[in-house]
């Protein structure tokens, strides 16, 4: 029997969430962000499902990710959100019909020197206030003119990234929008600004293309609230099974360091999952799981391959019974808060030994 830890991916929920994007931004094209193995959900299968459901394009982080999409037969526009890492990647970008983000002067110089079989459509990135990548707003027209002079460049669009769209009501987002629009107002080209937070919380940022990521996977992009209040459905169920049930005595310490001590005689379950699979090592005792669909909690430290569960609320549990780590009924946002991290890190952090199974 294979190890029971697995991630079950509901492609029908994924299509539902894409439709939620479409209803929120009906006048924009949708660039579905599938970088980092589609946020840990499985790049090729997720991209195929999104393409069939009507995604207009995809956003990835690297040529390597884009190549996998092209080799899988996906023909939608693919944007390289982190840009090009070397001049050598220009030929691959042309071969695979990719649209790189240009965010630095050295990339402009690469394009000026390039001799490609076909020119590239590109995104010119404007730093509207995140101060990570991109040209200062006042340089936008100058850089645009330089790019127009490049034989390796065809269409030029404009892109920026929202730094605080997850904070509903924060004025920073509107200031970024104003900066971006002012920088690009006199220039022709498609515009893209809204991430998931922008899609749901800031309709003025939708523009020509929206770039949803986290919300596609059924996770709220905001610092508070839940995904369900925005009509989103969880796509991933991370599950495993009990491999043992122990009868432990009052006063016995559980796991490494003896960090948790049994307050009474009690059953303790051992589940086949740990930080080697991507479950957060720092999830504290009391973090919820579902055993046979009923709520239970972790006890002791999470180890590499195993974790222990207080079974006092599920005394009939037996080896082989299912354990849910996160799912639609146990949001990954809740686990992230307990572990003092963010949902992105949890879903992206599942290891290669966790099998992905697709349905829907």
* Radius of gyration over C-alpha positions, nearest whole angstrom: 23 Å
Helical percentage: 25-40%
Instruction: Give me the secondary-structure category.
Output: alpha/beta
Largest sheet: 8 strands, parallel
Q: Taking strands numbered 1, 2, ... along the chain, how are they ordered across the largest sheet? A: 8-7-6-5-4-3-2-9
What is the typical, i.e. mean, pLDDT? 97
User: What is the chain-wise order of helices and strands?
Assistant: EHEHHEHEHEHEHEHEHEEEEEEEEEHHE
* Gross morphology: elongated
Query: What is the helix tally?
Result: 11
- What percentage of amino acids are in beta strands? 15-25%
Low-pLDDT stretches? none
- What is the strand tally? 18
**What is the terminal-to-terminal distance?**
25 Å
